[in-house]
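Action item from last meeting closed. Structure (194 res):
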């Protein structure tokens, strides 16, 4: 049985706006501008566990003619750690490990648990999309979307094999190597160092 004990408080405020640009009085029949709108949003969130974060987005929609809609959005988003991520109680288990340093495979005891020092992961994304809804084929909608996403500070749990492999690939210099306990050193390749 795995249990967790954690809590946090969240305070946030946000705003969102959508501004239609066209059609506007005197511009109802502008070629290739059946409609045009811009939008934006911002949110400020304060987590009692990790402090304040700001997320935002801005974008636009453009309908050059009735059947075609073009969309653009740029945003900063976050995912806060869950209560389980923060407060899962410690646990120990056995798992099979293939040690790339010594070339030996064996069963090891691994430990895990929550991390109360986690902060929200953050992503920046840009997307561009086109939706085509041909008026001559009622009910048909075709959409194509392109996006670019950059993620920083991802919250994840690494297994024993991933941890040892990442340490080995770094030549012992990755901070994750502190999670690998060896009887001799981080560079000794003898079987006794498994």
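Sequence:
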């Amino acid at each position: 049985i795995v249990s967790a004990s954690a809590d946090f408080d969240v305070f946030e405020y946000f705003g969102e706006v959508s501004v239609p640009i066209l059609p506007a009085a005197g511009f109802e029949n502008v070629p290739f501008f059946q409609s045009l709108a811009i939008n934006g949003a911002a949110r400020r969130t304060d987590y009692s566990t990790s402090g304040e974060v700001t997320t935002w987005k801005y974008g636009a929609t453009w309908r050059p003619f009735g059947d075609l809609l073009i969309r653009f959005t740029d945003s900063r988003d976050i995912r806060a750690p869950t209560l389980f991520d923060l407060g899962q109680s410690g646990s120990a288990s056995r798992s099979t490990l293939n040690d790339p340093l010594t070339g030996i495979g064996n069963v090891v005891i691994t430990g895990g648990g929550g991390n109360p020092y986690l902060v929200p992961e953050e992503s920046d994304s840009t997307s561009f999309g086109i939706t085509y809804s041909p008026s001559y084929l009622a009910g048909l909608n075709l959409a194509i979307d392109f996006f670019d996403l950059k993620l920083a500070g991802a919250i994840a749990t690494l297994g024993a094999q991933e941890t040892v492999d990442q340490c080995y690939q770094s030549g012992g210099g990755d901070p994750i190597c502190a999670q690998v306990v060896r009887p001799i050193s981080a560079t000794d390749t003898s079987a006794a160092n498994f």
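Note appended to the action item: The chain has a mean pLDDT of 90.
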